[in-house]
Design a protein that fits this description.
364 residues, alpha/beta, 5-stranded mixed beta sheet, two-stranded antiparallel ribbon, 14 helices
Length: 364
């Protein structure tokens, strides 16, 4: 699944999920939905057709504007499902417009990384909806030159006026190319992902601690008296010395449906720093629980996420760190992998690290 803008995504038509709002451009599936299915589906069929010409035609900017307006009304995800021919046309037209300096070699790089990402994410539990046909995903995409050549020039002001929210990897590539025109968008996006990443990291660590409260090795490592552990308590960590932060109601929100949702917004920098120290303590001291050492380095930025925004210094420090010390996720939460073309993001970071020009990947 390729994130285009806002909550709009491009996907192959191997399997269409009717509980999402969607556009279907497919020789086989570009038809009205049966009334019986309409009654039980949660998603709306925005528009459909058998070909690119039938659905989009000459007005690509109008098509994008329609989806933006529709999404603004519903505030829900919209997926554009395409057969292979229409997929090539949409992706070529999209990138020719939003990356005005892109050449064919750059376009091919994007497509290759996009399909690779699709295969990897769709072949794991990271796929929140379904898996595409992995064996056939490359078929029909070998020749993308014709789609690139047939895409037309679109007045860039039509897209600039739409004020679209573009995907993280291209905001980053634009900034790494030396263009700071989208710095504020990048700042908000990095702050959002970094906060989610820390919440995920801390939640996983806290859950691991809770799951090991009956593990004799864990208890002995941290000198915890088994008689002080009461698993019938709402939060068994509340009475265990050294783990009070993992029972802190300011950090872990609870309700009848959720047991401790991490909340970092508004925390003091001291409490955020102490949280990081506790996480390191658990991973570092408990044998058998290991973590990439570069992640420990990233913990220096935990005090940056508790505020409302990132400073210029914070933003540049974070980006410099992931360029020079990339880890497995590079501050992208794993459940946001469908919102970011992660292999392409890593490619951009590598290009910057090797001091190669990224100007062809600049957003308009």
């Amino acid at each position: 699944m390729l994130h285009l803008f806002n909550k709009v995504y491009l996907e192959f038509d191997d399997k269409i999920e009717i509980n999402f709002d969607r556009v279907v451009i497919s020789e086989r599936y570009g038809i009205p939905m049966l009334d019986q299915l309409n009654k039980v589906s949660y998603g709306e069929l925005v528009t459909f057709g058998k070909s690119y010409e039938e659905v989009i035609g000459e007005d690509f900017a109008g098509f994008v504007a329609t989806l933006k307006d529709f999404g603004k009304t519903t505030n829900k995800k919209i997926i554009i499902y395409c057969d292979k021919e229409s997929y090539k046309r949409v992706i070529a037209q999209w990138f020719k417009v939003v990356l005005p300096e892109l050449d064919f070699d750059g376009f091919k790089t994007i497509v290759n990384h996009t399909v690779y990402n699709q295969r990897i994410v769709s072949n794991s539990q990271l796929s929140s909806v379904y898996s595409v046909n992995l064996n056939s995903i490359w078929e029909g995409l070998e020749d993308i030159h014709e789609a690139w050549d047939s895409s037309v020039n679109v007045d860039p002001t039509l897209f600039e006026n739409l004020e679209l929210n573009y995907s993280y990897e291209f905001l980053l590539a634009t900034y790494l190319s030396g263009d700071d025109s989208r710095k504020e968008e990048l700042r908000k996006t990095v702050h959002m992902f970094l906060r989610r990443w820390f919440k995920e990291l801390l939640s996983d660590n806290r859950q691991m601690v809770l799951l090991n409260l009956t593990n004799h090795k864990f208890l002995s490592t941290f000198n915890i008296d088994p008689n002080t552990v009461d698993i019938t308590q709402l939060d068994p960590l509340s009475n265990i010395e050294g783990f009070e932060l993992y029972a802190d109601d300011e950090i872990w929100e609870r309700d009848e449906n959720q047991y401790g949702v991490c909340k970092l917004e508004g925390l003091s920098k001291k409490k955020a720093s102490d949280l990081a120290k506790l996480l390191v303590k658990v991973y570092d001291e408990f044998e058998g629980m290991q973590i990439d050492r570069s992640v420990f380095g990233m913990l220096q930025f935990i005090t940056s996420v508790v505020g409302e925004t990132l400073s210029d210094e914070d933003l540049d420090s974070i980006i410099e760190y992931v360029v020079n010390t990339p880890c497995d996720t590079c501050l992208v939460p794993r459940f946001d992998f469908q919102n970011v073309n992660f292999p392409l993001l890593q490619f951009f970071l590598s290009e910057k690290f090797n001091e190669r020009d990224l100007s062809k990947y600049r957003l308009l």
